[in-house]
Amino acid sequence: MNVSTRGRRLRSRAATAVFVCAITLLPGPSYATPGEPDPRNDQSIEDIHDELNGLYRQAEVATEAYDAAGVKAAEQEKRLASLHKDLARTEDRLDDLRDLAGAAARTQYRGGNLDSTGIQLLLGDHPEHALDDASQARQALRDLVTVSERQQSTRAQLSRQTDAAAEKLRELKNTRADKADAKRKIEQRIAAAERIEAGLKKEQTRKLAQLEEKEAQEAKSKWTGLSSGGQTGSGAGPTKASGAAAKAVGFALAQIGKPYVWGAVGPSSYDCSGLTSTAWAAAGHPIPRTSQAQWQGLTRVSLASVQPGDLIIYYDATHVGMYIGGGRIVHAPRPGRTVTIAPAASMPIVGVVRPGV
């Protein structure tokens, strides 16, 4: 390589380096770091408030689906375990019949007689009466068709139980998939809400808290009209609980300050229906696990007759709180919050149910 060629290459490399540096220094569009919270400076506090509430509501709907799938999966697992036990018993029965048929055939071939008591123990519906019913057993031995029929019946039973267990296993797998899908939705919504809250400025956070306090005050004044049906008076029934309701209210109030955790039923954390179901279980009256099942399965009462211990169902039966009197509920509100007391009219009410009746 001559000096002239080498010089041209060096000048070319230098020019390329200058060009790259120039591109690097040119101003360009600004991008947020992946995962960095959106400051939302262009949104009003009301809009931010609505967006957050929407995300947390979606998370709660998914939480109800998660809880319901958990209940369903537990029931399916229990049924599947029972089916497996039935299968094992039927298989043992079939083995016994197979052994009996073989023994009977061999004994008949030799011209002998099989112990009648053993036959009765295997074939009889009441083996404890085997010795008393020995004559019936001898008859069964003489007629090998009986053994064959029992074998066919037991094989058919085994086939049905096998099919039922396989179907229950498929249902369980589907339920677990539903549960996993609900879990993903919960985590996505909560993560989105947390990113928004983390990106708020101090002034925005302060204004958001003021807005929530204003809504709480408005809900307090709204309760009288709701619970009385427009009539004069509070319409809230008794203000003190008694009996099992008092125990349930006492338990729920003792959980104040514990964090909301979706899917939790205590003792250190709760979701909304986890709190109400655990409280009533502690009072000696177990109730369904989810708010939708509580709404569907418990005795409904009018809002005007609500009393402490009753459960107030909100939204589309995806949230629940326990009425404690004075127009207030104790509930586990949402992720990031703790079990607390709130105005009973702070959310859209679907209706009221009364456990223990």
Question: Main traits of this protein?
Answer:
357 residues; alpha+beta; 6-stranded antiparallel β-sheet
Could you describe the 3D structure shown?
By secondary structure, the chain is of the alpha+beta class. It is 61% helix and 8% strand.
Topology, number of strands: 6
Radius of gyration of CA atoms, rounded to a whole number: 35 Å
In N-to-C order, the SSE pattern is: HHHHHHHHHEEEEEE
| Strand order, largest beta sheet | 1-6-2-3-4-5
Secondary-structure blueprint of this entry?
Elements: H1 3-25, H2 45-110, H3 116-123, H4 134-142, H5 144-198, H6 202-228, H7 243-254, H8 272-282, H9 291-297, E1 299-301, E2 311-314, E3 319-325, E4 328-331, E5 340-343, E6 349-354
Antiparallel strand pairs: 1-6, 2-3, 2-6, 3-4, 4-5
Structure at a glance:
The chain is 61% helix and 8% strand. By secondary structure, it is an alpha+beta fold.
